[in-house]
Amino acid sequence: MSSDQTLSADVVIVGSGVAGSSIANELARAGISVIVLEAGPRVDRQHFVENFRNLENKPSYQGPFPAVPWARHPPNQQTPNEYLHTSGPNAEAYQQVYLRMMGGTTWHWAGCAWRYLPSDFELKTRYGQGRDWALKYEDLEPFYYQAEVMMGVCGPDPAKEDLGSPRKQPYPMDALPISYAAQQFRSLIQEKTPWRVVHEPQARNTRPYDSRPTCEGHNNCMPICPIGAMYNGSYSVYHAEAAGAKFIPNAVVYKIERDSANKRVTAVQYYDPDKNSHRVTGKYFVIAAHCIETAKLLLVSADDKSPNGVANSSGHVGRNMMDHTGVQVTFISGDKALWPGRGPLETNVIDNFRDGDWRSERGAYLVHMVDDNQVDLATQLAISKGYVGRDLEEQIRYLAAHTVRLFSHNEALPDPENRLTLSKTNKDILGIPHPDVYYKLPEYTVKSCEHTRGVFRQLIGLMHGTDEQWTPGYFPQDHPSGSTIMGTDPTDSVVDGFCRTHDHDNLFIASSSVFSTVGTGNITLTVAALALRVADTLKKELIHA
Amino acid sequence: MRQDRNRQPVADWCVSPNAMRLNRLVRMSRRDALLGGLGFAVAGGLSGAHAQTVQPNASAGADQSGEVASFMAVSQRLTDRDTLDANIGTALYMGIVHANPDRKDKIQTLRALMDSSKAATAADLAHAAEKADPALKDVIHEILTGWYRGVADNKVVVYRSALMFDITKDAVYPKTYATGGPFYWTTKPPEVERPTGHPALSASPFVIEPT
């Protein structure tokens, strides 16, 4: 199929999630022309809310978001999978889910908006593990704050509750008052353990903010906030469009063209759903297509000039795949009623294991007490136990009031052997290969998970818990990262400290794919901060050019 | 090399998971109907491609009303409730029978057992049923899953009206339907005493549905 038109802009962005849309918004507001190419469709919240209500398997976060055939995403976390094909000793631990649609994967996130710790950027120097980033916490601090203002993040007063990431300004909104269940958990931890429970910083409104309402506690942050009290990428899309950025949905980029010297990108090509090809030229290009799709696109674009893929002279595109591998347990507390599920999903965290000298031996982690409505789970459990009638109803009430779910984010390390490649056996309807990922958990992460299991067993004991249901093995937390790793050495990394590819002067990557290590906090705020730093670099170069 | 072939219509992404399943169901039921296989109730109830729930009355033939009446009687006994919603009951019955056509007879068996054993409570009926035929345990699970979870044939028949939310409404809201206003969650919910009842059926493995 041949190109039928040529589009052009100062900056061409691939992907409309938090990273791509926030860059588009910043640039459009500075008077720079922007085209954003989104592989998936334009979507709206109410369809997803209705889909959720009609979904039998309510905990399936992908369930309400069916993919279009030209921009498939993993339909679930099951192995084998219809789209993301994982293999290796820990294939199940890398069965990530994400969304390809306007606004990106933050349609289903819990709004957890952590800054990384300064040590997370210097793991090699401080603990002799993994790598250092090609930037320091201080370089990112102003952009963390900019991202917090953009999203509308609520969080605790650092004077009262220091989360370990130094701040120059307070959080844009006051911390979210935690639920009765979280209050009880917090008191228990404070009284009976050497640890602490902190308010989780969240991109969730504790007052009207950015024309969005205050959180009403629908307990459905994942898979879909029904009222938009939680930030997601679609709001940056709306703001960017209002500022003049052009978003093109159903535009599946499949090729990145470079000049004859292979130093600068000249255009990208995309397919529409009928496989007509379109060409988009620009001065700068940003790939902001999620960790997995970004690496896939660079590899798909291989040609004679770059036989291993674009931006891949190091051979590290698709390598160093990381995640926050999780340990999860659900049990029935023997103490007083908690009634989880009143308020937002994730509000409180044990943060004592985010950093320490032991990081030279095992990975860091954080622990969520998930404030999830457990009525459905309680009903299934009570029926399986054999209760009927009035006894069943009493059991459902008791179990729903006493079920506790804990899960962790355990730190991975960048290992080049953990690698994304193009599938040799599966292609989508446009002829683009599906992604394959080989994954073996680093021993560092395995040790971290073992430590977590010990802590969880202590907590179960403290709460006189019964009916433990451990999620088997290790499960993915959907925080994939590392596939276009950042570093100072062009021979073993893909981008520099400004997220500019070492190989191509005008090609940037805005994604968790640039992470050199993965820390413990949810990745989205760091993705947004890095993206806003890319926008800042582009503004300087384009306006001063 | 395998290539994705299933080119669904562009608008399919925006229909509900139930409607998508029902579309597939309709296609299957037409094929099955040609083979002379499918029951009248289900084929008749799924006339609309975007049907969200099975229409209770459109398909209920004269002989079916007796089946639904039996289902309702058994359901009332198994829930220890005097009243249950008949529209929901009809939809649940059709879903349960569609998933497993033999449930039609099994529910009649439960009804007969209920009468012959003079079971006065849910526990009585459950005891008698499992003793008479261990396979009836699965049928009881399906009936309870229908009323309490609002699910039959792996589809949502009702969400907000599922009984599990009726019995917990003094403490929590069904997800996406909170009406307590900002920060309602900081208040103390009701205490719940440890139940004194016992299981009436043998325990079954508890399998969490994979996500």
From TrEMBL, chain A:
The keyword Oxidoreductase applies. Residues 240-325 form the Glucose-methanol-choline oxidoreductase N-terminal domain. It holds the Pfam family DAO. Coiled coil: none annotated. It comes from the Bacteria. InterPro entries: FAD-dep_OxRdtase, FAD/NAD-bd_sf, GMC_OxRdtase_N, GMC_OxRtase_C, P2Ox-like. Keywords: FAD, Flavoprotein, Oxidoreductase. Its cofactor is FAD. One of its GO terms (molecular function) is flavin adenine dinucleotide binding. Residues 10-43 form the FAD dependent oxidoreductase domain. Gene3D superfamilies: FAD/NAD(P)-binding domain. Transmembrane segments: none annotated. Residues 415-531 form the Glucose-methanol-choline oxidoreductase C-terminal domain. PANTHER family: PYRANOSE 2-OXIDASE (PTHR42784). Belongs to the GMC oxidoreductase family. This is Choline dehydrogenase. It comes from Acetobacter indonesiensis. The lineage of its organism: Bacteria, Pseudomonadati, Pseudomonadota, Alphaproteobacteria, Acetobacterales.
UniProtKB/TrEMBL annotation, chain B:
InterPro entries: FAD-SLDH_ssu, TAT_signal. It comes from the Bacteria. Pfam families: FAD-SLDH. This is Sorbitol dehydrogenase small subunit.
